[in-house]
Amino acid sequence: LPCCTVITDPYQWVKLLVRPTVWLMTTDDVHVNFCIISCILCLVNTMNRNLICGSSVVLTLQLISDGGVVYAEALWDHVTMDDQELGFKAGDVIEVVDATNKEWWWGRIMDSEGWFPASFVRLRVNQDEPMEEYLARLEEAQAGEKDRAGLDLLLGPGLPCKEQMRTNVINEIMSTERDYIKHLKDICEGYIKQCRKRTDMFTEEQLRTIFGNIEEIYRFQRKFLKVLEKKFNKEHPHISEIGCCFLEHQTDFQIYSEYCNNHPNACVQLSKLMKVNKYVFFFEACRLLQKMIDISLDGFLLTPVQKICKYPLQLAELLKYTNPQHRDYRDVEAALNAMKNVARLINERKRRLENIDKIAQWQSTIEDWEGEDVLSRSSELIFSGELTKLSQPQAKSQQRMFFLFDHQMVYCKKDLLRRDMLYYKGRMDMDHMEVIDVEDGKEKDFNVSVKNALKLRSLTGDKVHLLCAKKPEQKERWLRAFTDERRQVQHDLETGFSLTEVQKKQAMLNACKSHPAGKPKVVTRSYYDFLLRQKHPSLPTALPQQQVFMLAEPKRKTSTFWHNIGRLTPFKK
Prior knowledge:
By secondary structure, the protein is of the alpha+beta class.
């Protein structure tokens, strides 16, 4: 804009807010003035957002440094093929060990540790579990005025702990449901309605791609909220019986499947439009005219995906604080299972479609690849890890990295110096393999003593592969993984899930277009000291996507050449 050419520093525009007449009257074009206002407000909101985000990280670091245990709850699945990253599913609870880096945190689940994107989780509002403390005190205080007074101080006046907690959960469900309806209304009336007026900017096909069937979801959710309101007891929320509402409409929630599967396409289409300034100004104008909160359009479009994943979490909390004698208990229990199945089906379909790009990206990093692409038969990484492999007739011991997909298992060799580089060495057809648990001791086929071993025998030939893990726990994990692989194949057959040729080709095309990662970022000394204490010292170099559904693969990790070269025997000597 001509009126903007004088000021090159965007932060200078903020200073002009106190003197609006200086710049607002530089042009008579209302659209231009409105766009300038939109840009300034967007800039101010961005600055505020950064401050809030920073304060959240500082609070988390403070809790950890004080010796407290900080837990986070997974909002989405984090699927990874890197042993330095921590994989988890939506709803998993992660112990946050370090949050020094605002993009990637180090966490722990059971006996697994690794990096994970901070944007994929939310910190628990209440880090302590009140029910555990309550039950412990209840066992100690069977009777006695003094102990009972202590319980009163713990629980506070009013309802008993469990009923109060159920009240809180019910109120949260109703509150979030009303907020969600407001979000959907803003999208339908604030964006879609305005977009349809601008036929010069949007085609009907574009709008269908960007917004999917969100209008259908809006109509259903309004009807669902009315049913919830009828069952909601405002005076005594803990008495409310809302479990039946979810049971009656469990099939209606399946309309989210279409929306979630389309969401990656919506992100791609929207990102293309946002490269053009007039669309950026238009969408921001829509947001301000509708008086919507400061969330970008892609953030609003993510809310239905988040919502369908949140229902099982809310119902699980409701069941936890519902007495088995409560009239709503059985319905809530059934509703939880029903919504878990709905969310699981939707999430699985969506994740499988998104992961094909990650698999294609992974394959493109493997050196000396031979044979057909992984996507020609597979669409899911089940498990990966390092094993010692012995195969007939040589029976030579080899260290290999194994990647178990549905229908096949690929194994690679690590580079001697660059341990992050893999060379393709072969694959196994799991559809024609039998997995055998091998006891510790002498193995008859190979005539060697083994420990933590399992055997893969071909059903169509004489090939036998002996695989040995370092620990018994790793062996058990691999046995479970092979069982999961067969279960996944059977489930795909029953549900009819398969990839189209177009999806496979597009994924491989995207992988070919990807660029290598740039230079690693500088790490501060304090953070470097922390890295040296960790089991996996390489911090992921890629910025995690704020939306898990953006079909993006983290960049290649920083080379650990100097870290690993010291481990080699000649250098030790």
